[in-house]
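Example record for the data management plan.
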Amino acid sequence: MAMPAPFSWGHLWLWSWSISILLALAAAVVLYVVGARRWKALKGVAWSRKRLLCFFVGIAGVFFSTQWVPGVYDMTLFSAHMVQHLGLVMFSAAFFAMAAPLELATETLPGTVGRVFRSVVDSRLGEVVGHPIFGFVAYAVFIVVTHLTSLFNQMLLHMWVHRLEQVGFLFVGYLFWRPVVGIEPSRHPLAPGLRLVYLALAVPVDTFVGLALVMSGHIEFNAYLAQHRTWGPSVLGDIKTGGALMWIGGDFLMLLAMIPLAVMWMRDEESKTAELDARLDAERAAAEAEAVAEV
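Corresponding structural encoding:
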């Protein structure tokens, strides 16, 4: 793989055109739009425009994370890889979860493909994979393995491994965010308060991995040395910068996502309190009416 031009802020016009990624994004758009049209034909109501918008925002996130500057330098600078990682797992995957692709596919896939897909989703395996605990554990393990083991070296040496890692960020990210956004039907839904706790427990994952990279005193990924890059920061300095991006950037995005969850939790508690007050008032009124009748 050829070394890209030295990075500078004047190179924000650089693009990395990957035919495989562009075709995959185009195919995803076609399938989702076709599914939305079939939903309207089958249900008699249009597929949610908000979900459609979320899907296109997620696609845009993948496009800019892989084809723009982060995609140009993701195999050369660890810091660029980290920006791409955050764009995929924290941004695009979250919006894909809000786009409810599983619900759309389950309800609209036709024929044998649809029956097989629904049988898998309804199976014991589907239940396990869709469980919030599985999404949480998958996220924690995937982030650690892809950044603190020799697998990252393999990603730098083989483009197909790099592409699998990108797909993994989206898939694992979708499983992680799905119970947080709570839009799709689930056999194990989380109450608003538990969603907040779920997200808070995930914060230490990025913190741990980021700090491990920041505090590293040696070069973790030897494949960077084999590139003989003659510009930009040192390899170790770049790895530390990437670690700081994961630590600070990842934690910031997690905390940002907690804001609407906290608001949702407060509204849920207020609703429950109002329902309890109404029930107590009704019981009190019934008791008073009964007392008056006895008199």
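Summary line stored alongside the record: DSSP finds 13 helices and no strands in the chain.
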